[in-house]
Automatic annotation (TrEMBL):
<feature type="transmembrane region" description="Helical">
    <location>
        <begin position="441"/>
        <end position="461"/>
    </location>
</feature>
<protein>
    <recommendedName>
        <fullName>Alginate lyase domain-containing protein</fullName>
    </recommendedName>
</protein>
<keyword id="KW-0456">Lyase</keyword>
<keyword id="KW-0472">Membrane</keyword>
<dbReference type="InterPro" id="IPR008397">
    <property type="entry name" value="Alginate_lyase_dom"/>
</dbReference>
<keyword id="KW-0732">Signal</keyword>
<keyword id="KW-0812">Transmembrane</keyword>
<dbReference type="Pfam" id="PF05426">
    <property type="entry name" value="Alginate_lyase"/>
</dbReference>
<feature type="domain" description="Alginate lyase">
    <location>
        <begin position="73"/>
        <end position="355"/>
    </location>
</feature>
<dbReference type="InterPro" id="IPR008929">
    <property type="entry name" value="Chondroitin_lyas"/>
</dbReference>
<dbReference type="GO" id="GO:0042597">
    <property type="term" value="C:periplasmic space"/>
</dbReference>
<dbReference type="GO" id="GO:0016829">
    <property type="term" value="F:lyase activity"/>
</dbReference>
<keyword id="KW-1133">Transmembrane helix</keyword>
């Protein structure tokens, strides 16, 4: 009996860890989602009997979100923002650390020691704040619930997504104010102030407009939610354009400016301010973008960081998003714009293909995949360079975390592309994700099941 009790405890722990790992695998990237792309996927690749790993992950995440009764809200924070209003979003700068050398009798480093940068070294205590976590999880759940509703038509999932949007953006008792004045604040002696880097925290909000367009067809949608969301996005757009932090973010020479433009252009387009969105992208292409890519394809403002491969892929994430959005609104063709060194986005993608990701961590070269797909889609692939690289990188992923494969706007329409050797790769067949991986969505649950079997074996053994 004692052995059975011990085994039960071990099994429950393993099962909980497996479920946690499934969700932890999901790291949303900024990508351009369209209802048309989702409908294409539904008509050409949708299989209820054998869904691909990414769709399994979306379905699983949506199902868990449906049953989650713990609301995401800025009011959950245990750290009150400096102005005393919990509706203000607050986060700490992740790469700033207290420097207490030479300071005597330190009892509270947060207020006594100056904070200094250690680029690439993540300060773990930033996770003590709930706003960044709740914000990311809210978007993840809204997106998965909306996609599930679009593909399956289950009104329960739409209703849950609408509830999440109401809590975060509309309800005056729980919603976030449409500004980020305390984003990535610098702690230390004196007044804690937000920085323009904090605008990066809301980059995933680019998924909210497409979620709205999906959910407004549901029975759960109503005039109050519609007006509240649209007012929030409009107000946030105005804050991004007119605040000092927003203006500083646009003037940055790296990914902070790129993601700022990606966000603001999205919100402006959603609000019907198409000319303003076009002008923003045009101005970006004529200014900041001009210094972003060298003739070789290297992105100097990202490659000088301590994680050069990661940050160059990260900036491409936003650049390719802007290029796709600009195509939709008949704006500047960012795919064809050349920097002052004569380089395009294609050069930046090509530069990274032969490189090894030497950054610390477990990302690998597969983080380049979304940009590879988009470069192939726009520039073509007569030599098979992208096909070869995509095939190689796909084998290193578990598939479950690659949500973007579900709604990549063009990749899903060009399933079969031949490489230089004449071999055909079908990118619509995402079973290839699981060729070398036992972790395609429920791989970790398989681990729990194996633990169960081993537990039973040892129970009977003893």
């Amino acid at each position: 009996m004692k052995n059975i009790q011990i085994f039960t405890i071990i099994f429950i722990i393993n099962l909980c860890m497996s479920l946690k790992t499934i969700i932890a695998q999901i790291s949303l990237k900024v990508d351009y989602v369209t209802i048309e792309g989702l409908e294409y996927f539904k008509s050409h690749n949708f299989s209820s009997n054998n869904p691909n790993p990414a769709l399994k992950s979306i379905n699983s995440t949506a199902s868990i979100a449906l049953k989650n009764d713990s609301p995401y809200s800025v009011m959950n924070t245990t750290v009150t923002p400096p102005n005393g209003n919990k509706r203000e979003y607050i986060s700490y700068a992740p790469y700033l650390w207290p420097s207490c050398k030479g300071i005597k009798n330190v009892t509270d480093p947060e207020t006594q020691c100056p904070y200094k940068p250690r680029d690439g070294l993540y300060n773990p205590d930033v996770r003590n704040l709930s706003d960044p976590v709740d914000s990311r999880n809210m978007v993840r759940d809204v997106l998965s619930l909306s996609i599930f509703y679009q593909l399956h038509g289950d009104e329960n999932f739409a209703e849950k997504a609408v509830q999440l949007l109401d809590t975060w953006f509309v309800n005056e008792e729980t919603s976030m104010l449409p500004e980020v004045i305390y984003g990535q604040i610098k702690r230390g002696p004196g007044e804690w102030k937000g920085r323009e880097e904090g605008i990066l925290d809301t980059r995933l909000y680019v998924y909210i407009p497409v979620a709205v367009r999906i959910l407004e067809k549901s029975r759960a949608w109503n005039d109050n939610i519609d007006k509240g969301i649209r007012n929030w996005i409009s107000d946030f757009s105005n804050w991004l354009m007119n605040s000092n932090l927003g203006k500083q973010a646009f003037k940055r020479s790296n990914n902070h400016a790129t993601f700022y433009v990606a966000q603001l252009a999205t919100y402006l387009e959603f609000s019907g301010r198409i000319d303003e969105a076009r002008n923003l992208i045009r101005k970006f292409s004529e200014t900041t973008f001009q210094n972003m890519i060298l003739k070789s394809g290297e992105q100097p403002m990202e490659s000088k960081r301590t994680k050069p491969y990661h940050y160059q892929c990260f900036n491409l994430e936003a650049l390719t998003y802007i290029a796709l959005l600009s195509q939709k609104i008949n704006g500047t063709n960012l795919w064809e714009i050349r920097t002052k060194d004569g380089a395009t986005i294609q050069n930046a993608v090509d530069y990274l293909i032969p490189l090894k990701n030497q950054d610390a961590g477990q990302e690998g070269e597969a983080i380049l995949l979304p940009a590879l797909y988009k470069a192939r889609d726009y520039y073509g692939d007569r030599s098979g360079k992208y096909a070869n690289t995509i095939s190689k990188f796909l084998k290193t992923t578990n598939g479950a975390s690659e949500w973007w494969t579900i709604y990549s706007p063009k990749s899903l329409r060009d399933g079969n592309v031949k490489n230089s050797n004449g071999k055909s790769y079908n990118y619509d067949n995402y079973d290839s994700y699981s060729e070398n991986s036992a972790t395609s969505l429920f791989g970790t649950s398989l681990y729990a099941m194996l633990s169960f079997g081993l537990g039973v074996f040892f129970v009977f053994l003893y």
